[in-house]
Amino acid sequence: MVKISVVIPIYNCEEYLEESIRSILNQTFKDIEIVCVDDGSTDNSLDILNKLASDDSRLKVFSQENQGSSFARNNALRKVSGDYVYFFDADDYLVEDALEKVYANAIINDSDIVFFKYDQYRDNKFFKHLGLDIEEQFPNVDFNDFTFDCYDYRIRAFRGPFAPWFKLYKRDFLDRYSFEFPVNLNHNDVPFHVKTFLKASKISLVPEYLYHYRLDNPNSISNTRLKNFKDIFSIIQIVEDFLRDEGLFEEFKKEFDYFKINRITYEISGRPNEYFLIAKEQLSEIDLENELLSKNVSFKAKTILNSNSIEEYNSKIEVHRLTNKNKRLSDNYNALKEQNESLKKDLSKTKKKNKEMLSSNSWKITKPLRSFSQLFRKIK
Fold first, then answer.
1. Do residues 293 and 256 lie in contact, with contact meaning Cβ atoms separated by under 8 Å?
2. What is the dihedral of CA 371, 372, 373, 379, to 10 degrees?
3. Which of 10, 106, 174, 314 has the fewest CB atoms within 10 Å distance of its CB?
4. Long-range contacts, stretch 132-138, CB < 8 angstroms, 24+ apart
5. pTM (predicted TM-score)
6. Which of 167, 20, 36 is nearest to 93 (CA)?
7. How buried is residue 292: exposed, middle or buried, by Cβ count under 10 Å (0-12/13-18/19+)?
8. CB atoms < 10 A from the CB of 150, how many?
9. What percent of the chain has pLDDT over 70?
10. pLDDT tens-digit profile of 102-135?
């Protein structure tokens, strides 16, 4: 048995695969196994994996027909032996001491889940991701000796980011509730996040950026999400069914409505009219006067209800965007205008003081001395 099992689904990522896998193999924390499941790749990904595995026995390679990352993760979960499980994406990479730090935090806090922070990068330029706000929720605490649960931070169960690759999970916890990723659906990490967060008794955080998330992989799920536009409604239904089965629906009704509205409005960009009609029907059943919603999300949801087609909705959103942009430009113009007026007043005061000084008796009396000083500097 090892301390951490790293689960990696792989599909057609030959360009990044070796760099990504080596970021796991080169971790300062060595007591790991790496369970790779190739999901029917049609490029050289499997050959790269087998070559890496021949050099390091900790890497175990399995293959399956192409069935999606969720099926691959579930397949891997049945093969792991570690005390903790970490899900990794094969086009990203980990900071060298990441597993060492999150494992130490997990042991100290006896955590079911350990969160850590991540940044994003494109063309080797890095951008800090500000979506994880646990530090703001629990200020002035020592995260080496601090845990919380869903009742301490209710909205976090229903708020993204939802991905599993910035969390470490205790395997006994995953096994106890038989957690798996729903198959054949985009956004399958969403219900996994909601379920595990709601059932965990101890959640902790390593407040450091330990994961680098690649933005420029055209084959990633986030870059192909528009293909199956109805999946988000299936995901929302899975979450609702779970809450009802667990007797938590009424208790978390406001948070669930927040989640549903956010997911529907977030996913509407680029969708066909069929998506719009389903979204409108589902939003008509929800109270949109939910104080958890941001003004922007609330506006989008109400605009869906007050529109008759995706084209009308998009037009209203564009008008709203341009109106806000115009207001920002107008505010900036007025601020610059005020600044210009202030500078004019300062200039006028300076000119007045300068004129007063030049006409003063002391300036006139000292004029010969200044002339002598200038002459002396020239001679010198």
1. no
2. 110
3. 314
4. 132/161, 132/166, 134/205, 134/207, 135/205, 135/207
5. 0.84
6. 20
7. middle
8. 20
9. 91
10. 999 999 999 999 999 999 887 777 777 767 899 9
